[in-house]
Amino acid sequence: MKMRLPHAFLIMFVFILGSCSEESLDDANILEAKNDIEVENKLLDIVNDHRLSLGYTSLESSTLAYKYANEHNDYMIATGNLSHDGFSSRASSIAAEVNAEMVAENVAKDYTTANEAFENWLASSDHKKTMEGDFTHTAVSVKKDSEGNLYFTQLFYR
Prior knowledge:
By secondary structure, the chain is of the alpha+beta class.
């Protein structure tokens, strides 16, 4: 999912989202799951290697995007569903905090390795377009649920 955020509409967009968003994210039952740092680092390396092989720039790691990617994985684990719920809010927050022009995300679940998640994203035209998009920053969060299933969220922005 991508969101282009023109500077002139950013303030109005944030106001509208704050006042009438239908994306309700109840934090009351969301616990923080454990990150799989090894898989996160591997997936980031795979995505950047892919971009470099195509002549694109590698993406700089963003602690801000990592915070939001982690929160979204915790949400997906709590609900047990793969989703882009709350993406508008994440995108608006990132845009407001770092003056980003465009924000996008890829999500996945139940893949067992970084390579498996990457290959499935690559096989999807929308996910591939995001990974190969005109972005400068990214963050990859990979978290395990209580049964050991992996959830993936990668945020991109420029």
